[in-house]
Amino acid sequence: MTEQILDHIQNIFPAEQDIPEKYNVKAPVHQTTYLCDGKLVEWKGEMKDVYSPIYIKEKGKLTQKYLGSYPLMTGDEAKNALEAAKKAYAKGTGVWPTMKVKDRITYMQRFVEKMQAKRTEVVNLLMWEIGKNLKDSEKEFDRTVQYILDTIDSLKDLNRRSSHLEYESDIYAQIRRGPLGVVACMGPYNYPLNETFCTLIPALIMGNAVILKPAKYGVLLLSPLLDAFKQTFPPGTINIIYGSGRETIGNLMKTGEIDVFAFIGTSKGANGLKKMHPKPNRLRSVLGLEAKNPAIILPDADLDLTVKECVLGALSYNGQRCTALKMIFVHDAIKDEFLKRFVAAINNLKIGMPWEDGVQITPLPEPDKPAYIKGLIKDAQDKGGALLNDEGGAQNKSFIYPAVVYPASPDMDVFHEEQFGPIIPIRSFVDIQEPIDFIVDSNYGQQVSIFGSNSDEVAKMIDPMINQVCRVNINSQCQRGPDVFPFNGRKDSAEGTLSVYDALRVFSIRTLVACKNHGVNKKVLSEILEDRKSNFLTTDIVL
User: Fold this and answer.
1) Which one, of 45, 50, 19, lies nearest residue 34 by Cα?
2) Where are the alpha helices (H) located in 206-262, listed in sequence order?
3) Is the bond into 234 cis (omega within 30 degrees of 0)?
4) How far apart, in whole angstroms, are the C-alpha atoms of residue 10 and residue 17?
5) In terms of C-beta density within 10 A (0-12 exposed, 13-18 middle, 19 or more buried), how is residue 474 classed?
6) Rounded to whole angstroms, how far apart are CA atoms 95 and 528?
7) Where in the chain are the domains?
8) Which among 154, 216, 316, 518 is most buried, taking Cβ atoms within 10 Å?
9) What tens digit of pLDDT does each residue of 345-374 get?
10) Is the pTM of this model over 0.85?
11) What is the C-alpha to C-alpha distance for residues 266 and 46, in angstroms, rounded to an integer?
């Protein structure tokens, strides 16, 4: 098996003629425009070349596939986008923030229609830019479309529940939610469409003006959607800029005119940008950050189920998910059997190119990630850890084979760091307090997976864990969905809650119109409502 896997790794990259025609990139995508104030502005400055993590075999040599380029914008162009957003928002008096809810919904429905027409292009670029397999790329696109539709439905429901007048202590009031201002959005490379849109869409539909900077990797896949944004939304409502986050968003933060910072990435990156804002008390942050989600396998766990869920949890999209299982604790009584089955399951995972049917392990988009993974392996081995699968860490350019390290110990880097890649540290335990202490002492607090069949023992774990993390998964991997469930974290893992329901609230604020109950007020109130004179103060509902 070892020789077969190693041979496959050494020959994993295709020749040009071996790539299916429908999945190949016919010509480089040069994104020479950016969206600002309702116009696709031509960029004449420096461009950033984009290379795929996929290499092409030609005449015995491997050459990284060239995909295209995008603008390396400066702070000046970013500030133009800020001015456009400010003009569109107009301190809350603009057309978009004062528009009827049903009209903003109509705009969003038009965008979804245009977006769906670009599915094939976006999915293909997802595969080539970040190495995500075809099935997961299609799932990311479809899930994003569904997220938008669910957001629309949730806003309709919110609108219906806010459409009546409250009467309390002789005061009439209508309580609704209003926008916050100018939002800066930055998404992650591992879900450059879905998680980016999970902040962008609710921010937009609640009436804010948005400046979006795509992730470092997965930039070109937005190119097919730029025209849809331009054609759909009022000028300045959505602006899309490119380049270094520190150069673009950093310069915008320094102005103090960003009202909401929506960021999914590392706490270091988020903190660095937040500190640039001169008025931190006026900045609302919506952050999805790191996690070190553990699995805790109790002695009575169903091993067939547990191994399946742990492999999926640790290695879906090569472990490049904040919700991935990044540390596995297994009870000493079943460790030998679990380790044997776990390694065997990994050896059965299909490796290859993203478009290959059933492929599960693919090349990594971050150029430095293979070296980082190998460094973690070496550090673990130097400190007494063993590599349980001989092929673990085997590399060919951007591809690295998953590595299983046992026993992981607290002095190893991989024990504490969020590896965000295909290395799985495992540690056995006798006293359940050990994995509990790991979670309590961790800098992160997103999720945990508990595997066991004894309800008494599982219940004992739930009560202390729910106050350490924000989701306890029973006999299943950690995950974000369904998107209607809250997605958040404690400690350094998140700030604010994202879900279809919660995101509408995090990008808005409760506001109300109120008046005392006497003659002239009742007359004014009745006339406004009956003649539909206000977009905010209305009892109309959206069906």
Assistant:
1) 45
2) 223-232, 245-254
3) no
4) 18
5) middle
6) 19
7) 21-288, 293-483
8) 154
9) 999 999 999 999 999 999 999 999 999 999
10) yes
11) 27
